[in-house]
Design goal:
Blueprint (H helix, E strand, L loop, with lengths): L1 E2 L16 E2 L1 E3 L5 H4 L27 E4 L9 E4 L4 E7 L2 E6 L2 E2 L5 E12 L7 H6 L18 E5 L5 E3 L10 E3 L3 E2 L2 H10 L5 E5 L5
Parallel strand pairs: 5-14, 8-12, 11-13
Antiparallel strand pairs: 1-2, 3-9, 4-7, 5-6, 6-7, 9-10, 9-14, 10-11
Length: 207
Amino acid sequence: MNLSRTFAGIGLACLPLLALSGFSLAQPRPAAAMKETMEIGDEPGRVSTEEVSITEGPYARQMVLFRSNEAPGTVVIHSGERFLYVVQGNGRALRYGIGVGREGFTWSGQVQVSRKSEWPDWRPPPEMLQRQPYLPRFMAGGPGNPMGARALYLGSTVFRVHGTNQPETIGQAISSGCFRLANGDIVDLYERVPVGTKVIIRHNATL
């Protein structure tokens, strides 16, 4: 399978820079559904500590019923539903609310966690700097970094599962292909998911 497309517009923290293989482009969400989130940009310098979690509503971390033939420990991301699951076995999974790629930046495929990082650094890509020249060229990891408290790197791609200093964006389509969790949730996920973990990305849940 090949992912061959041109990413229109300028992305947020995770703008893809390479042609990728092993992935497919999901059907974009209607423009009307994306309008509200398109104007929300990353906010370097905004502080959000690693204790910040989603504690109420559907995006709160919780154990749920989940039918899957995948082995326990597998991560399954349903971007269309805004959830990430860690398969527990016996028809259950630990579910996290996530923010996902905006219109034109949703994708699907299968990868492994290739690397993990605590308080990752941020280097906005050139395309992003062209549109937002006031952004820093480099930002060291820390509570004010848009990459949040932890990051799980997905295979050889430029995409990550990472934290955010904007927890209010969880449940929205806002990124350029990365998946974001509230800092408290990415810290929890980070401890559960070792390097080498299988990650399946789907645009919608399958019955």
